[in-house]
Amino acid sequence: AGYRGTATAGYRGTATAGDYGTATAGASGTATAGASGTATAGESGTATAGDYGTATAGESGTATAGASGTATAGYRGTATAGDYGTATAGASGTATAGESGELRIQWWDHKASRFRTVLGYVGENGIKADTAYRLNDKHELEEVKQ
To answer: Among 81, 101, 116, 143, which has the highest number of CB atoms less than 10 A from its own CB?
Structure first.
C-alpha cells in the first residue's frame, strides 16, 4: 500500500504499508509500516513500525518501533523501542529501549494468580540505553548477556 495506505495479509502472510500507513499480518506473518505507522502481526509474527509508530506482535513475536514509538510483544517475545519509547514484553520476554526510554516486563505471580509488571527507566538504577533486559529469578531486571 502507498502513502496513508493499509495492507492486510492472511495466515503466514506479509503486509507492508507506506508512510502513515497501517499493516496487519496473520499468524506467523510479518507486518511493516512506515513513519508514524502502525504494524500488527499475529502469533509468532514480527511487527516493525517507523518513527513515532506502534508495533505489536503476538505470542513469541518480535515488535520493533522507531524513536518515540511503542513496541509490545507477547509471551516470550522481544520488544524494542527507540529513544523516549516504551518497550513492553510478556513473561520470559526481553525489552530494549533507547535514551530516556522505559522497559516493562511481566511475570506471573502464582500467589496472587495475576501478572505483575517490572518497570525500568533508561538512565536510572544502572539501566542502559539500547541494551536488552530480562527478569531474573527474583523478578529483577538483568542485562541479557550475548
So the answer is: 81
pLDDT of 130 reads: 93
Query: How many whole angstroms separate alpha carbon 55 and alpha carbon 134?
Result: 19
Report how many helices (DSSP H) and strands (DSSP E) the chain contains, helices first.
Answer: 0, 16
Angstrom distance (rounded) from CA 97 to CA 139: 19
Grid cell in block for residue 47 = 511487527
Q: State the burial class of residue 99 (Cβ atoms within 10 Å of its Cβ: 0-12, 13-18, 19+).
A: middle
Q: Under a CB-based contact definition with an 8 Å cutoff, are residues 90 and 72 in contact?
A: no
pLDDT value at residue 60: 74
Q: Tell me the one-letter amino acid at 42.
A: G
Query: Which residues contact residue 111 at a Cβ distance below 8 angstroms, ignoring those fewer than 6 apart?
Result: none
pTM for the whole structure: 0.78
Q: What CA–CA distance (Å, rounded) separates 85 from 9?
A: 27
CA distances from 97 to 10, 18, 55, 109 (A): 30, 24, 14, 25
In the chain, the N- to C-terminal Cα span, in Å, equals 37
